[in-house]
Specification:
Elements (H helix, E strand, L loop, with lengths): L1 H6 L8 H8 L6 H10 L23 H16 L3 H13 L11 E5 L6 E5 L9 H37 L1 H6 L5 H16 L4 H9 L4 H15 L3
Helix pairs in contact: 6-9, 6-10, 9-10
């Protein structure tokens, strides 16, 4: 070894993988050791691994070295080693792995939410440029469906109130304004069983479009009985 001949230092060349294996049995990591060595002021050897301070800066490999590197790389590609997996992952991230492959046909579409143009594969079912736009659209649709369902349910509740008043005309016509709760309890229970609504304010809103209270609802039902409307 040149180091031993020149400086009288015994040394052994090992690979990075072998060094990693050695550090499995010590209470600190190889990464922390290298970081400490690089940042230490007590080491004088130049430690830069990039730029003009790199020990390999402007140093070209000899043809012999290139052949050895090529042979080693070829062996890695022929193996199923972790090193090969890392090489493939590096190519995938860089996009080079896609070179030479025929890309699937793509097309430009207009986002149905924000109106921006975006590119997708022609076979894609994507209608929105981002998940945010898709989420906003779904919220709008859900809100619209809820409003439509609520309007339909309110109309059905109103018809139920009218029909119940007609079917119980004798009770409604004689009920005083201070006995509303006990009189209308059967109606409230009936509506709850059919529509899952028990809040009197919601029932009043279904009839009038706004909450007008129990007295106004009872007056409405008395009017229904007197006029016999439905």
């Amino acid at each position: 070894m040149l180091l031993k001949k020149t400086y009288g230092i015994d040394c052994e060349l090992i690979s990075y993988e072998e060094l990693l294996d050695m550090y499995k049995f010590v209470p600190f990591s190889l990464t922390s050791t290298i970081t400490e060595w690089i940042e230490s002021n007590n080491t004088t050897i130049n430690k830069a691994v990039f730029g003009k301070y790199n020990g390999h800066f402007n140093q070209k490999h000899t043809d012999q070295t290139k052949r050895k590197i090529g042979q080693h790389t070829k062996k890695l590609w022929e193996s199923n080693s972790p090193a090969k997996a890392r090489m493939i992952e590096g190519l995938r991230k860089s996009g080079l792995v896609q070179k030479g492959k025929q890309k699937k046909p793509r097309e430009q579409r207009i986002c149905k939410s924000c109106g921006r143009e975006f590119e997708v594969i022609v076979t894609s079912s994507k209608l929105f440029c981002t998940q945010v736009c898709a989420g906003n659209s779904n919220i709008k649709i859900a809100t619209q469906v809820y409003v439509e369902n609520r309007a339909s349910i309110h109309q059905e509740i109103k018809q139920t109130v009218i029909q119940w008043a007609i079917d119980h005309t004798e009770i409604i016509t004689v009920t005083p304004l201070n006995k509303i709760k006990s009189t209308l309890n059967p109606l409230i229970e009936h509506i709850y069983q059919d529509f899952g609504v028990k809040d009197f304010r919601v029932i009043s809103k279904a009839v009038f479009g706004e909450d007008r209270g129990r007295k106004e609802l009872l007056r409405f039902m008395k009017k229904v009985c007197n006029e016999n409307v439905c």
